[in-house]
Give the backbone structure.
Amino acid sequence: MKYIFILIFSFNIFSLQAQEFADKESDSLNTKRTFLKSSILPLSMITAGIIANNSQFEKDLRFDIRSKVGNDFYFRIDDYFQYAPIAEMYLADALGVEAKNHWFDQTKYLLISNIITAVITQGLKRTTLKTRPDLSSRHSFPSGHTSFAFTNASVLMHEFRDSAPVLAYSGYFFSTTTAAFRMINDRHWISDVLVGAGIGILATELVYYLEPLKNFNPFKKNENINFVPMFDQNSKGFYFSYTF
C-alpha cells in the first residue's frame, strides 16, 4: 500500500516599509520558513495516521505483529523510554554540554510543549473513543505515550542540535522505540502512534517558534540554583538544589 502526500505552502511577502528594519524582517521570514519546513514531517505523520485509522491495513498489521510475538507478549520498556530524552537533557546540562537555552528556559518550554500535547491528545481520546487493540479501553487514539515521548525528544533536539547533534537526535531513538512497543504490546494501532508522534513534534515546533514567556527567567543570573522536573510511573515532582 502506497500513500502519496503533497503539502503545498504559499508565501505572501510584502515590501518593507523602512530600510532600517530590513534585516529584522528577513530574520523573521527565515524563522517562519524554518517553522513551516519543520512542520512538514509531523503534518505528514498526522495525515498518514488519519488515513490509516480503522483501515484494513492497520488491522492486518496488528494481526501480523501478534502472530510474530504472540498474544501474551508484553514488555514495559515503553513505560520508561518515554522519559529518556528528559533524563538526557538534564544530564547533559549537569555535565556542562552547551545548550541553546538556560536550564529554566528548557524546563519552561518542556512543560509548555507537554501541556499543549496533553490537551490535544486527551481531547482527541475523549472525542474519538477508539477501542484499543487489546480491548482494554476506548482511549486508543492517539497514543499518549507516543505523543509525550516525541515531545520530549523534540525538546532535546532543539536544545542540543547545534552543539551536540548525536545527543540531540538520540531522543528520537527512545521515542520511536516507545511508539513501536505501544503496538508490539497491543496497546495501540499504527494510526494512534503516527498521530501521537505528529502531535508531539508539531506542538514542540510551535513552542520553539513562538517562544512563550521568552523573557521570564528568574534564575538566569543565578547559576547556583538548579530546578529539574522529576517523573516516574507513580508520581511527578521537582528536584531543587542550591550550591553555596
